[in-house]
Amino acid sequence: MSRAEALDALAAPARSRARQWLSRLEGPQTMGRGPAFWVAMAAVVLAAAVYPLFSNDYTVGNAAYFLVWTFMAMGLGVVWGYCGALSFGQTAFFGLAGYAYGVITINIGSAYGLTWLALILSVGLGAAFALLIGYFMFYGRIKGVFIGIVTLSVTLVLETFMAQTAGPQWAIGTARLNGFNGMSGMPPLTVPWFGGDVVLYSGTALYYVLLAMVVIVYLGLRMLLNAPFGNVLVAIRENPERTEMLGYDIRLYQMLAFGLGGALAGLSGALYTAWGQYITPSSMGLTSAALPIVWVAVGGRRDITATLLGSVLVIAGFQALTIYGSQYALVVMGALLVFTVMVTPDGVVATLMQRLGRIFGKAGR
Amino acid sequence: QDGPIKIGVLEDQSGDFAAATAVKVHAIELATKEINDAGGIDGRPIELVVYDTQSDNRRYQEFMRRVLQQDEVDVVFAGFSSASREAYRPIVNQFDGLAFYNNQYEGGVCDANMIVTGAVPEQQFSTLIPWMMETYGPNVYTLAADYNFGQISAEWVRQIVEENGGTMAGEEFIPLGVSQFSQTIQNIQQSEADFVVTLLVGAAQASYYEQANAADVGLPMASSVNVGQGYEHKRFTPPSLADMYVTTNYIEEIDSPASQDFVERFRAMFPDEPYINQEAANSYIGINLYKQMVERAGSTDHDAIRAVLAEGDVCFDGPSGNVCLDPKSQHMSHTIFLAKVEDDHSITFPETWENIEPYWLGDAGCDLTQNDPSAQYTPSSPPPAP
Amino acid sequence: MNDTVLLQTTGLCSGYGGEQVLQGVDLTLNEGEIVAVIGRNGVGKSTLMRTLIGLLPASGGSIRFGGQDVTQDGANHRALQGIGYIPQGRDVFPDLSVRENLMVGEVAGAGRPAPDYDLIHRFFPILKDRARQRAGTLSGGQQQQLAIGRVMVSHPRLMLLDEPSEGIQPSIIKDISRNMRELNAQTGVAVLLVEQNLDLIVSMAQRGYVMEKGRIVATLGPDEISSRDAVRRHLTI
Amino acid sequence: MTQILQVSKLNKRFGGVTVARDIDFALDEGAMHCLIGPNGAGKSSFFRLLLGEHAPDSGTITFRGRDITPLRSFQRIREGISVKFQVPGIFKALSVRQNLQIAFQHHLHGASLTETVRRVLEFTSLTAEAATPAGVLSHGQQQWLEIGMAVGVEPRLLLLDEPTAGMSPDETRKTGEMLHDLNARGITILAVEHDMAFVQQIAHSVTVLHMGAIFAQGSIDQITAHPGVQEIYLGAADE
Amino acid sequence: MEFFTAIFSITYQFGDAFAFLVISCAGLAVIFGMMGVINLAHGEFIMCGAYVTAATARAGLALPIAILCGALAAAAIGMVLERTVMRHLYHRPMDSIIATWGISLIATQGVLILLGPTMQGVGTPLGSMALGDRSYSLYRLVLFAAAVGLLGGLYLLFYHTRFGVIARATIQRPAMARALGVDTRRVYGLTFGLGAGLAGLAGGLYAPTMTMVPTMGATFIVESFVTVVVGGADIFLGAAPAAAILAIIKASLTAWYGQLFGQIGLLVAVIVVIRIMPGGLSAVVKRWQR
Ligand SMILES: Nc1ncnc2c1ncn2[C@@H]1O[C@H](COP(=O)(O)OP(=O)(O)OP(=O)(O)O)[C@@H](O)[C@H]1O
Ligand SMILES: Nc1ncnc2c1ncn2[C@@H]1O[C@H](COP(=O)(O)OP(=O)(O)OP(=O)(O)O)[C@@H](O)[C@H]1O
Ligand SMILES: NC(N)=O
Ligand SMILES: [Mg+2]
Ligand SMILES: [Mg+2]
Predict the structure, then answer these.
(1) Domain boundaries, chain E
(2) N or C: which end of chain A has fewer CB within 10 A?
(3) A116 lies in a domain?
(4) Whole-prediction pTM
(5) Residue E78 pLDDT class (50, 70, 90 cuts)
(6) Choice from C38, C45, C59 to test ligand 1 binding pocket (greatest atom count within 8 A of CB)
(7) Is A235 at the interface with chain D, CB within 8 A?
(8) Total number of domains in chain A
C-alpha cells in the first residue's frame, strides 16, 4: 500500500462519516428536499446577504435584532415540536445567559475578543442550567403540562428575584445587577482586528455575523434531527412508553434535548444583551415567556424550517403592527393569532410549505 | 434648515402603565398643537412621531433605535417607569440623541443626553416626610414597590426620617404585580407607625388602599407616586384614600389661574380625559422648554442646546408655576404642592413649597457642564469623589 | 322475527380525507336479525360501522334506519333513535368508573324503558363487582364486556358490534354469543356483527355479508353462515 | 437446556386486586410457550412486571442469569427482550417506515437497517403502506406493524401479548408460521393468547394464569383436557 | 386572649390566601381539568366579571346580585367564544394556548380602547371587626366562605350529578360519547360557559377589593395556574388540597419573611411539590382512596 493510499484509507471513514451527516440535511424529520428546495434556500440566504446593500443601517440593525431571537425559537422547536415537552420557561435560560454575558464582560472587558469567550461561557451556563432542570424534571418523571408549569415557575422565580436586586449589595465583581431597571453598560461583541477591534454594534457587521450563525445552527439542527437522535426525540413525543420499550433511555434523550434548547435560548440571551447592551428581569417574565411559544406555534413547531421562518415572520409582524397599528395593534395581533390557529392548525409557515408541495415534502418517508 | 422639527414620543399607551401614561401623550399633542398654531418653533412646525411602547421594555429599545436612526427625530420624549428609561438610555447614548424623561422618579440620573422634568426625592420627600412627622409623629412605616424606584425612594425616606429624629416603624417591599395585602395590613397594624409612606407602583399594588380601608387601618398615608400619577382618589370609592398626603408638582385640582387655564385647554382638546396628572404637566412643560432652547440656540443641535441649558436660565411659566432647568444635573426645579385627600376624596392643599431645586445630584458631584458619566447614582452609591 | 327492514344502506360511500374506503355498500338488515359482516384486515369493516353510527360522514349513498333517512343525522341522534355502537378497541372512558361508564350509556335511552341492570349484571357479573374501578385499569376482556353493557343500558334496536371477540377468553366468547342470542330473542334487538372469529360467526349470525375492498362481494345465507368451512373459505379469499 | 428467564415469588397488588401472587415461572432457552388465562387473570400485568413497567411488591426476575429486577425498562430491553403490546403501541403520527426504523436503529445502522426495514415491510404485507402514517392503518394492520417492530431486531426473548387479536384465521395461521420460523432461529417466545387454535399451532407448553397465580401448567393437550381450565377459561366443551 | 388573637390572625391569613387561590383557580380548573384547554384568557374572564360587577353595583344593584351579573356576563361571553373559537380547538391544547392568548390580548386592549385605562371600583362592604390590637375586613371572611362553598358545589356537580359524568366522558372520548347519544357540542358549550362564569364570579367577588384596570386579570393568572396544575389531573380532588398547601406555604412565608419570599416561595413550592408528586396531588389522593 502506498503512502497516499494509506492516508486515503485512513481518511475514508471520516469522509463517509461526513457524507453520512451531509445526507442528513434531508430526512423524514424535516421538510424540504431535493435541488429545488436547496436552490430556494440558497436564494433566501443570498437575498438576506445582499439586502443590507440596499437598505439603511436601522433596518439592518433591526433585522439583526429579529435574528437574535430565532435561536431561542429553534431551541423551543426542538424541545416542544420534536420532543414534545412544552417548556414555558425558555426565558430562564435566555435571561441567565444574558446576565452572564453582562457580568462576565463587565468584569473581564472586551479586549482580545474576550467577548466571544463570554458568549461561549454564557451559552454553556444556559445549557448547564437547562441540563440541571432537565435532569430534575425528566428523571423525576415529570411530564406533560407539569413541565410547562415547572419551567414557568423557574423563570418567574428568576424574574422576581432579579427584580429586587437594585441595591449596591447585589453585585458580582464589578457588575451591579441593578434590579428591575436592568443591567447595562456591558460591551457589545468585538472582533479583534488589525488596527483596532471591530465593535459589533447593532448594524450591518453584527447582522452578517448573526446571519452566519443562524445558517450554521439551522443546518446543524437539520442534521441532528434527521440523525437517529432526532428519530428518538420524535418517537418520545409520539409515545414515550413505547419508546422506552424499544430500549431507549428516554430520560437521557429528553434531558439532552432540553439542554440543547437551553443552550440555544442562552445563545439568544447573550446575543440580545450584546446587541442592546442591556438585560432586564422582565425578559424572564410571563409575557416574555409566552412569546417564544407564540412564535413557534404560529410558524409551525413540528418542523425546524417552519419554526425559523415563522418566528422571524411573527416577530417582524408584531413589531410592524405596533408601529403602524397605534392602539389597535394588540387587538389586531390577538385577532391574527386566533385566526391563524383556527385556519392553519399546523402553523402558518408549515401549512404554506405543505401547500407548496413536493419540493418541501419530507424526505424518506 | 426649515423642515418640521421632529419629536419622537415613546409612551405606554397600553399595558400595565397605560392608566397613568396615556395622558402624557395627550399633553404632548396639546403642547404641539398650541405651538404649531402659534407658528411653530422658530417658524418650523413640530411633527410628532408617536409609538406605543405597550409597557414593554423591549419596545423601548426597538423604538428608540427607530426614532433615532430611521425617523431621525431631533428629540425624544420617552418613558414612564424607571426600567423603561434604563432600557432606552444606552441607545440614546450610543447614538448621541437627546431624550426628555418627563416622570417623577427615584432620582440620580447624571447623563448629558437626558433632560428630566419629573420630580425627584429631594423635591418630594424632603418636603413631605418632615411635614408628616411634625403633624402625625415620628414613627414611619414604608410600603414600597420592590424594585429600583421603590427601594431607592425608601432609602431616601429612611435617611430623611433619621435626619429628623424619627424612627422607622417598619419597611416592607412588595413585588410588582402583587395585589393581596392582608398580611401587610396586619404588619402595619402591629407596628407603632404614626403614618404610612406608600410607594406603590402599578394598578395591582394600588389595591392596597381599598384593602387597608376595609380592614380599618386608619393611619394617615404619604406618597410621592400615588394620586399624583394614578389618581387613585378618583378610582376608589371614598373614603379609601382619606388622609393621604402627596407631594406633587402638579395635579388638576390645583386652583391657580394657570392650572385652571391648562385644565380648560386640555379638556377642550380631550374632553374624555379621565385625569390630568403631574406627568402630563411635565410633558407639556418639557416641549415648551425644548422650544425655548431651540429658539435660543438657533438650531436643534444638541451641543448648541446644551450650551443654552448651561446658561442656567432656561425657565418656563407653566401650569404649576415657574420652573427652571438646572445645568449641572439637567433636572428641573419645581413648586411642590402637598395634596391632601379628604374623606370624600376631594383634594385640599395644606402646604406649598415654592421653587425647590433638584440639588442633590449637583451637591453629590454630578456636573454635566464638566463631564458626562452617563450613570445613575443613589445616596448609598453616590458619584465617585473627584 | 319478522321481515320489516330495520337498516338499509344503498350505495354507501365514505372514507378518510381524500381516500375513499367504502365504495358503495348495499346491505339490508331486518328487525331482530343478527347479521355478520366478514372480511380481511383493512377492507373497511370498521369504516362501515363508523359510518353507520355517524362518526364518519357518508360521502355518497344513503342510510335508512327504522324507515327514516338518517344519512344526515349526527351520531348522537342516531344513538337516540336506537343504534348502539360497540367499537373495535372498546373505547371505554378510561378515567370514569365502570358505574359511570354505564351512566353515560343511559343518555341514549332517553324515552325508552329504564335500564335493566339486573340483566346486564347477570350477563357480565364483573360489571357489578368492579363498579367503582376506573375503566382504564380493567383488563382488555373486561373492557369489552363493559362496552357491551354500556350499550345495553339504553335498550337499542340495533347493536353494531365490531370484533367483540378480540382479546376475549374462549368461555366468554361463548357467553357473548349465547347472551347476544338470548338478548336478541328476548328483546328483539338486531345485531350487525363484524367478526373474524369463526366460532362466534358460526354460532351467532343468521346471515352474512362478505366485504372486500370497500364493497360487499358476496352474501351468505343461513346455511353457509353456519358452516365453518364456508365461512373460512370466504375469510381467506 | 439452560433457562433464559426465571421468575420467583413474584407478587404485585393494585389496591384490592392481586395481579401477581407468588408466581414462580421459568422459561427454557429456545422454548415456545403460551400463557393463557381468563380476562383479567394478570397476563398483561405479568408482562409489565417482566418489562419493568410495574415494580413488583416482592420477588425477583432473572434473565439470562442476571437479576434484572432493579433495572429500568430500557435496560431490560437492551438485555435482549422485545415486546408486542396488547394495545398497539405504535407511533401513530409517524410513517410505517419510520416506526420500523426507530424500532431497529438501536441495533442496526446504514445498509443493514434499510435492508431489515424492507424485509419486515414485506413480511408484514405493509410495503404499500410504508409511507402511510401508522395511525390510519386498520386495526389489524396496526397489529402487524407492532409485531414487525418486535421481531425485526431478533431478540433473545420475544414477548407477544395477543398477537393475533383482530386477525382473520388465515392471518393467524401465517403468524404462527412466522413464530415457528423465528423460534427456529433461536428466539425464545412467550405469547399470551386467547385463540386456542393458535395456541395449539405454536405452543410447546402452556401455563394457565388465574387471579394472578399459576393455575396449571403442561402440554396443550393436558391443558385443554384439564377440567379446572375448562371451567374457568375454555367454557363447556361444546353446546 | 393574646394567644387567641394570634391564632385568629394566623388562621385569617391562611384563609385569605386559600380563598384567593381557590376562587381564582376554579374557573380554570373546570376548563383545563374537564376540557384540557389551557385558557390563557382566564384572567380576562375575571376582569370581565369584575367590570360588570362594578358597573352594575354602581348603577344601584345590590352587591350580591351585581356579582351574579358579573358571573353570568362572563359565562355568556364564554359560551359565545366557545361557539366561535374554542370549539375548533379541542384536543389541540397547544393551539388553545395561542388562541386564548390572542383572545386575552383582544380583551385587554379592547376594554382599554372602549372603556379607558381605568374604571371606578365599588367599595368593600361589611366593614371591619377589631380583635386585640388588630382589625380585620369582614368581607375577607365572606371570601373564605365563598371558596369553601365553591369547592363543595363543584365537587357535587362533577361527581354526583349526571352532567358531571357526561361532561367528563365527553372530554375523554368525544367521538364515543357522541356515539352514545351525548350532544357533545352542548356539553362543551356548557362546560366552557361554566368555567368562564366561575372566572367571572372570581372577578365579581374580588372586584370590591381591587383596582379596576383592563390588565387586572394578570394578577390572578400565575397563582391560578399553579394551583390547578399542582392539584393534578383530577381537579376537585386536587385543587382543594393544592390550594391549602400552597396557602400555608405562602401565608407563612409572607408572614415571616415578607411578600417577596411569599411570592418566590410559592413558586418554589410548586416546583418541589410537582417533583415529589409528578402526577399532581390528585394522583396521591387517588392512591389513598383505593
Ligand atoms: N382514521 C383513518 N384515517 C385514514 N385512513 C384510515 C383510518 N382508519 C382506517 N383507515 C384506512 O381505511 C381502510 C379500512 O380500515 P378499517 O379500519 O375499516 O378496516 P377493517 O376492515 O376494520 O380492518 P381490521 O379487521 O384490521 O379492523 C384501511 O386501509 C385503513 O388504512
Ligand atoms: N393499574 C391498575 N390498577 C388497578 N387494577 C389494575 C391495574 N392494572 C391492572 N389491573 C387489574 O388487574 C387485573 C389483571 O389485568 P391484566 O390486564 O393483567 O389482565 P389480562 O390477564 O391481561 O386480561 P385480558 O386477557 O383481558 O387482557 C385486572 O382485573 C385489572 O382490572
Ligand atoms: N419612575 C417610576 N415610578 O418608576
Ligand atoms: Mg376493524
Ligand atoms: Mg391483557
Answers:
(1) 2-289
(2) N
(3) yes
(4) 0.87
(5) very high
(6) C45
(7) yes
(8) 1
Cβ distance A239 to D89 less than 8 Å, yes or no, reads: yes
Of D19, D162, D195, D233, the one to substitute when testing ligand 2's pocket (max ligand atoms within 8 A of C-beta) is D19
User: Which regions in chain D score pLDDT beneath 70?
Assistant: 1, 236-239
Structural domains in chain C? 5-234 (3.40.50.300)
C168 touches chain D (CB under 8 A): yes
Binned at pLDDT 50, 70 and 90, residue E221 comes out as: confident
CA distance B83 to chain A (A): 4
Torsion sign over Cα E141, E142, E145, E146 = negative
Q: Is residue A21 part of a domain?
A: no
Q: Which ligand neighbours the alpha carbon of D143 most closely?
A: 1
- Chains contacting chain A through 3 or more C-beta pairs under 8 A: B, D, E
For residues B82 and B105, the answer to whether their CB atoms sit within 8 Å is: yes
Any chains having at least 3 CB pairs less than 8 A from chain C are D, E
Does C136 sit in the ligand 2 pocket, CB within 6 Å? no
pLDDT score recorded for residue B287 = 94
Ligand closest to Cα of D161 equals: 5
Closest ligand (CA of B85): 3
Cα separation of E194 and E82, whole Å? 11
Whether residue C88 contacts residue D166, with contact meaning beta carbons closer than 8 Å, is answered with yes
C-alpha grid cell, residue E135: 382589625
Strand positions, DSSP E, chain B = 5-11, 46-52, 75-78, 99-101, 109-110, 114-116, 139-145, 167-174, 195-199, 221-223, 244-248, 315-318, 321-324, 334-341, 347-356, 375-376
> Which regions of chain D does DSSP assign to beta strands (E)?
3-14, 17-28, 32-36, 58-63, 66-67, 81-84, 157-161, 188-192, 205-210, 213-218
As its CATH architecture, domain E2-289 has Orthogonal Bundle (1.10)
Domain of A184 in residue numbering reads as: 66-282
Q: Residue E232 corresponds to which amino acid?
A: G
Tell me the CA–centroid distance for residue D128 and ligand 1, in Å.
Answer: 14
Structural domains for chain D: 1-80+157-163+187-239 (3.40.50.300)
Q: Which residues, 6 or more positions from E12, have their beta carbon under 8 angstroms from its beta carbon?
A: B182, E136, E140, E141
pLDDT band of E245, cuts 50, 70, 90: confident
Mutate to test the pocket of ligand 3, among B16, B57, B81, B146 (most ligand atoms within 8 A of CB): B81
Residue A176 included in any domain: yes
The residue-averaged pLDDT of A150-170 equals 86
Mind telling me how many Å the CA of A209 is from chain B's nearest CA? Answer: 20
E strand spans, C131-203? 158-162, 190-194
> Does the structure show a pLDDT above 50 at C1?
no
Which of C142, C144, C196 lies at the smallest CB-CB distance from D166? C196
ipTM of the complex: 0.85
- Confidence band for A362, pLDDT divided at 50, 70 and 90: low
What's the confidence (pLDDT) of residue C196? 84
- The pLDDT assigned to E69 comes to 93
Which of B183, B188, B229, B237 has the most E C-beta neighbours within 10 Å, making it the best mutation to test the interface with E? B183
Q: Does D73 touch chain A (CB under 8 A)?
A: yes
B365, three cell numbers: 458631584
The chain D residue lying nearest E287, using CA atoms, is D15
Mutate to test the interface with E, among A82, A83, A153, A339 (most CBs of E within 10 A): A153
Residue A12 predicted with pLDDT over 70: no
Is residue A40 one of the residues assigned to a domain?
no
CA dist B213 and E128 (Å) reads: 9
> Where in B166-230 does DSSP place strands (E)?
167-174, 195-199, 221-223
Please give the full DSSP string across D50-100, using - where no structure is assigned.
HHTSS--SEEEEEETTEE-TTS-HHHHHHTTEEEE-SS----TTSBHHHHH
pLDDT in tens, B322-345: 999 999 999 999 999 999 999 998
